[in-house]
């Protein structure tokens, strides 16, 4: 069973985090827990301690990962520990004098993306940095663990793997060299060949195309893409924009306010077409007129690395 989407909140208290330089993501359970019935879960009291019948003992810890842009990703992940460590942690967890001396050594129990199976089981040691927080996994044992906590990772490459809303904008790969900015606070998913991002009152859908007609110009392919929209409404005067770059790429956007939906809604439909026939189509829906600038920003964030 897949892990539930982690939440962009503090791993300890669940409160929203506003510091864009630190992004907290938490995993509700160790991966192995989803293969067992709920009756197998036992806790000695603190919610950060979990025993699974027949599957081991686990302590929730904080795993700091350094990202580019002076950003830190702090993962509220689980470490599998031996029974002696687990029982000792239970004894001192609420002891103000003994808890700061707690040392937890165990194996990472979540296949954290984008590393996945490479880091599942990586051995790390956790220590208490702040008496009000979970143990921090600050020491790695073995090459994978040392690389995970010692290397600076590409911010967008890592964060784009988390589909739940994040407090920062994240450039997301679409395929064929294309990428787009997923706005702060938007969830993401890929379904039926379409990348989709959404938040309250706003949504984005991005689709990639490849021209199958050899030798057709970018302008003609764009015209074909626009003409393929079934029942497309007439775009009001002054609500469309096109541009052509020196290398032959073309971009086009149009926007309107449909009157047949029963509620106020605005739409922007846009394309970016490369000279080699690779193209991206983008559709934004939003409720407030003032969000038109946001929709245009998302369109202009479409980028292709050739």
Describe the 3D structure.
It is a single chain. By secondary structure, the protein is mainly β. The chain folds into 2 domains: 22-155, no CATH class; 169-304, Protein Transport Mog1p, Chain A. Helices cover 14% and strands 38% of the residues. Strands 1, 2, 3, 4, 5, 6, 7, 8 and 9 form a 9-stranded mixed beta sheet that branches. Strands 12-13-14-18-17-16-15 form a 7-stranded antiparallel beta sheet, sandwiched between helices. Strand 10 and strand 11 form a beta hairpin. The longest helix is centred in the first third of the chain and has 10 residues, at 83-92. The chain starts with 21 loop residues before the first strand and ends with a strand. The model is unreliable at 1-17 (pLDDT under 50).
Percent in helix: 10-25%
Number of strands: 19
- Uncertain stretches of 5 or more adjacent residues: 1-17
The CATH architecture of the largest domain: 3-Layer(aba) Sandwich
Tell me about the biggest sheet?
Answer: 9 strands, mixed
Spatial extent as radius of gyration: 24 Å
At the first level of CATH, what is the class of the largest domain? Alpha Beta
Ends: how far apart? 37 Å
CATH superfamily of the largest domain: Mog1/PsbP, alpha/beta/alpha sandwich
Name the structural class. mainly beta
Shape: elongated
Total helical elements: 5
Instruction: Count up the domains.
Output: 2
Can you give the mean pLDDT? 89
> According to CATH, what is the topology of the largest domain?
Protein Transport Mog1p, Chain A
The fraction of residues assigned to DSSP E strands is: 35-45%
């Amino acid at each position: 069973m897949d892990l539930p989407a982690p939440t962009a909140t503090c791993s300890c208290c669940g409160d929203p985090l506003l510091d864009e330089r630190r992004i907290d993501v938490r995993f509700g359970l160790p991966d192995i827990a989803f293969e067992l019935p709920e009756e197998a879960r036992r806790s000695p009291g603190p919610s950060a301690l979990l025993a699974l019948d027949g599957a081991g003992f686990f302590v929730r810890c904080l795993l700091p990962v350094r990202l580019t842009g002076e950003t830190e990703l702090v993962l509220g992940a689980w470490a599998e520990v031996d029974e002696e460590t687990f029982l000792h942690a239970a004894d001192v967890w609420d002891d103000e004098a003994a808890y700061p001396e707690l040392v937890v050594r165990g194996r990472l129990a979540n296949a954290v993306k984008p590393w996945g199976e490479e880091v599942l089981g990586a051995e790390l040691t956790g220590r208490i940095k702040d008496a009000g927080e979970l143990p921090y996994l600050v020491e790695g044992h073995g090459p994978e663990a040392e690389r995970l906590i010692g290397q600076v990772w590409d911010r967008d490459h890592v964060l784009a793997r988390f589909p739940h809303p994040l407090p920062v904008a994240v450039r997301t790969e679409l395929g064929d060299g294309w990428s787009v900015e997923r706005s702060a606070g938007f969830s993401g998913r890929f379904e039926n060949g379409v990348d989709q991002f959404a938040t309250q009152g706003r949504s984005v859908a991005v689709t990639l195309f490849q021209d199958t007609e050899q030798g057709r110009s970018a302008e003609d392919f764009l015209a074909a893409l626009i003409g393929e929209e079934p029942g497309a409404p007439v775009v009001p005067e002054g609500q469309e924009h096109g541009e052509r770059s020196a290398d032959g790429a073309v971009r086009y956007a149009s926007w309107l306010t449909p009157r047949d939906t029963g509620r106020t809604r605005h739409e922007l439909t846009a394309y970016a077409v490369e000279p080699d026939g690779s193209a991206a189509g983008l559709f934004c829906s939003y409720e407030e007129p003032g969000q038109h600038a946001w929709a245009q920003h998302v369109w202009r964030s479409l980028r292709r690395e050739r």
